[in-house]
Design goal:
Elements (H helix, E strand, L loop, with lengths): L2 H24 L2 H22 L5 H24 L21 H11 L6 H11 L5 H7 L4 H17 L12 H20 L11 H17 L4 H14 L25 H17 L5 H14 L8 H14 L3 H15 L1 H8 L8 H13 L3 H14 L3 H12 L7
Helix pairs in contact: 1-2, 1-3, 1-4, 2-3, 5-7, 5-8, 6-7, 8-9, 8-10, 9-10, 10-11, 10-12, 11-12, 12-13, 13-14, 14-15, 15-16, 16-17, 17-18
Protein name: RNA polymerase sigma factor
Organism: Cryptosporangium phraense
InterPro entries: DUF6596, RNA_pol_sigma70_r2, RNA_pol_sigma70_r4_t2, RNA_pol_sigma_r2, RNA_pol_sigma_r3/r4-like, TPR-like_helical_dom_sf, WH-like_DNA-bd_sf
Length: 409
C-alpha cells in the first residue's frame, strides 16, 4: 500500500473516530473538525518522509489533540477562555481506540438532533461523521459552496448556543432519535441512487457508498436494532442493481429491463442474509425492514416473470399499515398491475393526490400505454418529463413517450 493509499484509508476509517474523540474532550464541534483536518494535513506532510505509523488512528488522534490544545491556548490568551477549555497535557495518554466506539455514536446523534433542519442534519453528518469536504457536500446537493459552508457553521453554532447535549439519548428517547438518524442516512442514499440535479451524474456512487458506510457504522454500534439492519439491507439490495440501472446511452433502465446477471451477487447475498435474520428474530418489522423484504423478493427472481407479485402486494399492504402515504399506495399499485391488470391499478392510481410527483405521472403513463390509450399516455409522459430531475430518468421517459403510436393529426 502506498503512503497516499494509507492516508486515504485512514481518512475513511479514522475521521469519525478522531472527530468524536475531540468532540468529547473539548465539547466543541468547531475545534474537533478543524483540529482533525489539521492532523490529516500534517499526515500528508509527514508520512511520506517518516513512514506510515504502526497505528494511524492513534497517531492522528494524538496529533489532533495537540492541535486542539494549541488552538485553545491561543484563544485563551486573547479572551481568557482558558478556564472553560477541557485542557489536557500533551503527554496525557489517550484512551485506546476501542474505548471510544460509542463516542462516534454520540457524534452522530448530535449531528442528527431534531432541533436542526433536515437538510442541515444531512450536511453536518456528511461533514463531521463522513469527513466529506464542504465543496464535496455542496456539489452533491447542488448548493453554492459558500452557502453550504454557512449552513454547517450555523448548525455548529446552534448546537453550541442551544447546549444540545453530546450524548446518546435516554432509553425512552432512543427509538425516535434512531429513526431520525436513519432518515438522514436514507436521504443521503436516495440522492446518490437517483440524483436530482440536471448537471450531475444520474447515479452518484460516492453518495450511495457513503450512506452504506455510515449505516454499517450504525449497525456496528447498534447491532440489535431491527430498523438499522433493515435500512442496511435495503441499501445493499438497491445498490446491488446499480451496474444495470443506466444504459450506455445514459437512459435509466427499468427493473423489468435490467440485465440481472450484472447485479452484484455479493451485496444481494448480504442483504438477503440481513432480511432472513430479521424474520428469524420474530419481532414485528418496521418500515425499512418491510422495504428491504420487498427488495429481497425482487432480487430473488432470476427473471422478472419469476417475481412473486402476490408477496410484493402483501408486503406493500403491511407497509401501508406502517406508513399510509400516497407514495406507498402508488408503489403498491405498480405491483397490483402485474397481478390484476393495468385497469385495476390505474383506478387506484387516479385516486391519489400526487400531481407534483414525477413518478405518479410516469406510472400513469405506463399504465395508459398498456391499456392502449396512447394520447393520454403521451400527456402523462410529458408531465413526468417536466417534473423529472434526474437526467437518466428523463431520457428513459422521453424514449418511452416517443415509442408511442403517433398522435392523430
Amino acid at each position: 500500500m502506498t503512503v497516499t493509499e494509507a492516508i486515504t484509508r485512514a481518512h475513511r476509517e479514522e475521521w469519525a473516530r478522531v472527530v468524536a474523540s475531540l468532540a468529547k474532550r473539548f465539547s466543541d464541534l468547531d475545534v474537533a473538525e478543524e483540529s482533525a483536518a489539521e492532523a490529516f494535513a500534517v499526515a500528508v506532510e509527514r508520512w511520506p518522509v517518516d513512514g506510515v505509523p504502526p497505528n494511524p488512528g492513534a497517531w492522528l488522534t494524538t496529533t489532533a489533540n495537540r492541535k486542539a490544545i494549541d488552538r485553545i491556548r491561543r484563544e485563551s490568551k486573547r479572551d481568557d477562555k482558558h478556564r472553560e477549555a477541557r485542557m489536557v497535557s500533551d503527554d496525557e495518554p489517550l484512551e485506546p481506540l476501542g474505548a471510544i466506539e460509542d463516542e462516534r455514536l454520540r457524534l452522530i446523534f448530535t449531528c442528527c438532533h431534531p432541533a436542526l433542519a433536515r437538510e442541515t442534519r444531512v450536511a453536518l453528518t456528511l461533514r463531521m461523521v463522513g469527513g466529506l469536504t464542504v465543496p464535496e457536500i455542496a456539489r452533491a446537493f447542488l448548493v453554492q459552496e459558500s452557502a453550504m459552508g454557512q449552513r454547517i457553521t450555523r448548525a455548529k453554532a446552534k448546537i453550541k448556543a442551544a447546549r444540545i447535549p453530546y450524548r446518546v439519548p435516554s432509553a425512552e428517547d432512543l427509538p425516535a432519535r434512531v429513526s431520525g438518524v436513519l432518515a438522514v442516512l436514507f436521504l443521503i442514499f436516495n440522492e446518490g441512487y437517483l440524483s436530482t440535479g440536471p448537471d450531475t451524474d444520474p447515479v452518484r456512487q460516492d453518495l450511495t457508498a457513503e450512506a452504506i458506510r455510515l449505516t454499517r457504522l450504525i449497525r456496528t454500534l447498534l447491532p440489535d436494532d431491527g430498523e438499522v439492519a433493515g435500512l442496511l439491507a435495503l441499501m445493499l439490495l438497491t445498490e446491488a442493481r446499480r451496474p444495470a440501472r443506466v444504459s450506455a446511452g445514459g437512459d435509466l433502465v427499468a427493473l423489468h429491463e435490467q440485465d440481472r446477471g450484472a447485479w452484484d451477487a455479493g451485496l444481494i447475498a448480504e442483504g438477503h442474509r440481513l432480511v432472513r435474520e430479521r424474520l428469524a428474530a420474530g419481532v414485528a418489522p418496521g418500515r425499512y425492514q418491510v422495504l428491504a423484504a420487498i427488495n429481497a423478493v425482487h432480487t430473488s427472481a432470476r427473471d422478472v416473470r419469476d417475481t412473486d407479485w402476490s408477496q410484493v402486494v402483501a408486503l406493500y399492504d403491511q407497509l401501508g399499515r406502517l406508513d399510509p402515504s400516497p407514495i406507498v399506495a402508488l408503489n403498491r399499485a405498480i405491483a397490483v398491475a402485474e397481478l390484476d391488470g393495468p385497469d385495476v391499478a390505474l383506478a387506484a392510481v387516479d385516486r391519489l393526490d400526487l400531481d407534483g410527483y414525477h413518478a405518479f405521472h410516469a406510472t400513469r403513463a405506463d399504465l395508459l400505454r398498456r391499456l392502449g390509450r396512447s394520447a393520454n399516455a403521451r400527456d402523462a409522459y410529458d408531465r413526468a418529463i417536466e417534473l423529472a430531475g434526474n437526467t437518466a430518468e428523463a431520457a428513459y421517459l422521453t424514449r418511452r413517450r416517443d415509442q408511442l403510436a403517433v398522435r392523430p393529426s
